[in-house]
Design a protein that fits this description.
6-stranded antiparallel sheet; single chain; TIM Barrel; alpha/beta; 8-stranded parallel sheet; Alpha-Beta Plaits; about 35% helix
């Protein structure tokens, strides 16, 4: 998952911070803070010193109820700031919904176009296709002036996800390379606080699209609603906590006002682990035709036990897949899934917990690759490599097993293992799997 932004490249397997620099008189929390170019540049340099990898420069407030400013005024606010920062080697993002502003800022050295209107303007799509800048595609219902006028959704998570998928596909069809695209679900933009919380607690659904995901939660009104904090400037600690939760669920680009506080909170991010789950031998006798349901029931019990592990959160679970037996073919078909967890348990200790779960579900190791009531494998553990025969990581047979590759790529499209290997269906040789 490399996000290509002109000359800048970002490995999105680990989250990083985009610092917010609003050179506006009326932004909701910092409007007027940087009255001239020198103050804005000083603020940007401070954020770089605090660990921001990108500076997002905005010259038009898009707070709820805001009025659109002219292109000329917006350019007057942002262009010199962009030019100077880019000349200093800073990766600059231009936060704009105006194609002319984006075009001029890219010419001045901006590496990213952050469009809150989600590239709905054909002229903005032309700018995107004509350059190699990174693109942030955001979801917003309506326009800033009217977006909070009773926004309605049947399913906010599904509707935002499908919108972002459609806009990203449209950009690709216009000639934009997929690796340049990042998606932003747009917390607070055309969404009530309750809708925004629901959306942010299901970021993994946005990650399923296969693009880097932005967490732009900093000082937003939903945080004031959820945490009871009225003044936006007092929301930095809660914003950092929300950013951490979003990153554990799959976001990787964090847009923040307070870079230092956000970076400090992200130090608490737990590594992820991918757990393969399988079963082909129900614990209880079943009637003909009910074997698959019994196997799924046992896998659900194993998943329930994963939820009980200390300092661990189950983030995502694939669909169930029925698969042909691998290696030892004379046995019943399997049901498999892959779970994504965040955990503070070290790999060897985690393996012990998984063996205990297997034992509780009747696992007996009598025959290599033979029938089993429950099989739990650590497939990949973030940043961890091991050649220990007791626990080799990443799992050495992962990429040849269709019953692992399909469910894994369902929840983590384009996943790169800790050793740098990209998971691909092209390497599959055994255990053909079919989604149930």
């Amino acid at each position: 998952m490399i996000w290509n932004c002109s000359g800048c490249k970002f490995d999105t397997r680990m989250p990083f911070v985009m610092g917010i620099l609003n050179v506006t008189p009326d932004s909701f929390s910092d409007g007027g803070s940087y009255a001239d170019t020198e103050q804005a540049l000083a603020a940007a340099r401070k954020m770089i010193d605090e660990g921001a990898l990108i500076i997002d420069v905005g010259g038009e407030s898009t707070r709820p109820g805001s009025t659109e400013v002219s292109v000329e005024e917006e350019l007057d606010r942002v262009l010199e700031v962009v030019r100077v920062l880019a000349a200093e080697g800073v990766c600059v993002s231009i936060d704009t919904r105006h194609a002319q502003v984006a075009r001029e800022c890219v010419k001045a050295g901006a590496s990213i176009i952050n469009d809150v209107s989600g590239f709905r303007d054909p002229a903005m799509v032309e700018v995107a296709a004509s350059c190699d800048a990174g693109l942030v595609v955001m979801h917003m219902k309506g326009e800033p002036k009217t977006m909070q006028d009773a926004p309605e959704y049947q399913d906010v998570v599904a509707e935002v996800r499908d919108y972002l998928a459609a806009q990203a596909l449209m950009l690709e069809q216009a000639g934009v390379d997929r690796s340049r695209i990042c998606v932003d679900p747009g917390p607070g933009f055309g969404k009530t606080p309750k809708q925004t919380v629901e959306l942010m607690r299901n970021i993994q659904e946005i990650r399923h699209l296969g693009y880097p995901v932005m967490a732009a939660v900093s000082r937003k009104s939903f945080i004031g609603w959820a945490y009871g904090i009225d003044d936006p400037k007092d929301r930095d600690e809660a914003s950092a906590q929300e950013a951490l939760m979003a990153c554990e669920l799959g976001a990787s680009v964090v847009r923040a006002h307070n870079v230092a506080a956000t970076r400090a909170k992200l130090e608490e991010l737990r590594p992820y682990a991918l757990i393969g789950i399988g079963c082909n031998m129900p614990l209880v006798k079943t009637n003909p035709g009910e074997e698959t349901e019994a196997k799924i029931s046992q896998l659900n019990m194993a998943i329930g036990d994963l939820c009980m592990l200390p300092d661990t959160q189950v983030i995502d679970i694939s669909s169930f897949y029925e698969s042909e037996p691998a290696y030892l073919e004379d046995q019943d078909r399997f049901v498999n899934a892959v779970a994504l967890i965040r955990t503070g348990i070290p790999p060897r200790e985690l393996l012990g917990y998984l063996h205990a779960v297997e034992k509780s579900l009747g696992r007996v190791r009598e025959q290599k690759n033979g029938p089993r009531t429950c099989d739990l494998d650590i497939l990949d553990y973030q940043l961890y490599l091991s050649e220990d025969p007791v626990l080799t990581l990443p799992h050495p047979l992962l990429n040849e097993r269709d019953f692992v590759v399909k469910p894994l790529l369902e929840i983590l499209p384009g996943h790169m293992l800790a050793n740098g290997t990209v998971v691909s269906p092209d390497t599959v040789t055994v255990g053909r799997a079919y989604r149930l």
